[in-house]
Amino acid sequence: MFFVKVGFQNRSLLFCKVGFIQKEFGGRKMNALVLIDIQMDYFPGGKMELVGTAEALGNAKNLLEKFRTEKLPVIHVQHINMQEKAPFFVADTEGVKIHPDLTPAAGESLVVKHYPSSFFQTNLAEIIEEKEITELVVVGMMTHMCIDTTVRAAKDHGVLVTLISDGCATRDLVFEGETIPAAWVQKSFMASLCGTFAQVVKAEEY
After folding, report:
1. Residues 163, 198: contact at Cβ < 8 Å?
2. Predicted confidence (pLDDT) at residue 159 exceeds the cutoff of 60
3. Would you state the pLDDT for residue 29?
4. Residue 4 has pLDDT above 50, yes or no
């Protein structure tokens, strides 16, 4: 294990890498924005409403505009639940649709997944290779499920991740009869990912 100080605008972050091999394309760096599962069932009126969706959506929208202005790659990830009697994200329903504020534009990639990881049985790795992407800037939902799984999987694919903490949302969880508030869930998962798996920052710091 070794530690490297990484400067990030006016901050100095301790970034821990453990056996991490980063993709390189002739020394070039290419960031891509990945918007994971920001779909209608997670918003008020949906089948799986989360906590903090308004703030996460606003920050995701601002980052999307930034990446579009700078003509950087944008990858939208949409989850379609294929389970029998699935509780949410059912195909051909309003809830499965990407939020209209983030509708994919022409030329932007759309990855459809059926499992928590955005890499598992999808073409995300191929898109990263084709576009020579070296770092993913991640926003989306749910923090404790698809965000966590995708960020960890990115390391296996040799891709650096900057995770936007306030561009993600989660919900209360229940364990051993005790309710764990969404705010605690959010902080716990961000803390566990920060360092080894991702550089975790707020949207205003990016």
Report:
1. yes
2. yes
3. 82
4. no
Residue 99 neighbours by CB under 8 Å, 6+ apart: 38, 39, 40, 43, 57
Residue type, 115: Y
Residue with tokens 């290419």: 30
Tokens encoding 37 = 């599962």
pTM: 0.88
- Strands laid side by side in the 199-201 sheet: 109-113, 74-79, 31-36, 135-141, 160-169, 199-201
Do 93 and 40 touch, CB atoms closer than 8 A? no
Residue 102: name the closest of 59, 135, 137 by CA: 59
Is the pLDDT at 171 greater than 90? The verdict is yes
Q: Which residues contact 171 (CB under 8 A, 6 or more apart)?
A: 48, 49, 50, 51, 142, 182, 185
Q: What is the mean pLDDT of residues 145-152?
A: 98
Residue 97: Cβ-neighbour burial (10 angstroms; 0-12, 13-18, 19+): middle
